[in-house]
Amino acid sequence: MTAPLGLLGGTFDPIHYGHLELAREVRNVLGLAAVRLIPAGDPPHRAAPVASAAHRLAMVRLAVEGYPGLEVDDREIDRPGRSYTVLTLEELRAEDPQRPLALIVGADAFLGLSTWHRWTELFDLTHVVVVARPGVALDDALPAALAADWARRRATDPAALAAAPAGAIYVQPITPHAISATAIRAALAAGSPAATHAQIGPLLPPAVLAYIDRNQLYRSRPDAT
């Protein structure tokens, strides 16, 4: 059996240890060949990112340097139009029709899966690994549109992810990391460099913080330079 390739999308605005540790832990626990971080160019389900696509991609590249087994995929940055996950999966599936793919999503994102573009086709292209978050009860909150797939596709053995290229739903609890990109951006906008380094330095890789400083990202105040 071929080890699955994990896929983790997001705006990464900016990338932080919450993203990186999630990817590292899921890869290790499930025996994934690698996890590709895929920055969204034009995300369809959230507000436009604050940092440009080029800056966010550069930060992700810097961040993964300290994480063996984590890779960067820039196709959504390069592809014009909205960053629909189904299009990315179609491209990856065309590149290797038989390789198992495992799309990693948070529980809250999974509960909204039926609002995604062409969402019913996702299971033909990938497995879905749902990262369980404290306080989100999947069984109780599951939308009716997802109920049939949940009942039919739910796997309790991670070996199911390697046994077929796509089609399973697997729930993986992880160690929670209470880190928010929104809070990081707010701290950078509000404080002096010295204050924000002390506040957010432990939350993201030093190379990413240095890049933010070098390019004056998220600094909205003239005196916060």
Secondary-structure blueprint of this entry?
Blueprint lengths: L4 E6 L6 H14 L3 E6 L13 H11 L6 E3 L2 H4 L6 H11 L5 E6 H5 L10 H4 L1 E6 L5 H4 L2 H10 E2 L4 H4 L5 E5 L7 H10 L2 H8 L5 H10 L10
Parallel strand pairs: 1-2, 1-4, 2-3, 4-5, 5-7, 6-7
Explain what this protein looks like in three dimensions:
There is one protein chain. By secondary structure, this protein is of the alpha/beta class. It folds into two domains: 5-173, HUPs (Rossmann fold, 3-Layer(aba) Sandwich); 181-215, no CATH class. Helices cover 42% and strands 15% of the residues. The chain has twelve helices and seven strands. It has helices spanning 17-30, 53-63, 75-78, 85-95, 107-111, 122-125, 138-141, 144-153, 160-163, 181-190, 193-200, 206-215; strands at 5-10, 34-39, 70-72, 101-106, 127-132, 154-155, 169-173. The chain has a seven-stranded parallel beta sheet. Helix 2 (53-63) packs antiparallel against helix 12. The radius of gyration is 18 Å and the shape is globular.
What's the gyration radius in Å? 18 Å
Ends: how far apart?
52 Å
Backbone shape:
globular
- Share in helix: 40-55%
Q: Got a strand count?
A: 7
- What's the average pLDDT? 92
Q: Please name the fourth-level CATH homologous superfamily of the largest domain.
A: HUPs
Q: Which CATH class of the largest domain applies here?
A: Alpha Beta
What is the fold-level CATH name, i.e. the topology of the largest domain? Rossmann fold
Helical run tally: 12
What does the largest sheet look like? 7 strands, parallel
**Helix/strand order:** EHEHEHHEHHEHHEHEHHH
CATH architecture label of the largest domain: 3-Layer(aba) Sandwich
Classification by helices and strands: alpha/beta
Strand order of the largest sheet: 3-2-1-4-5-7-6
Strand content: 15-25%
Low-confidence stretches: 221-225
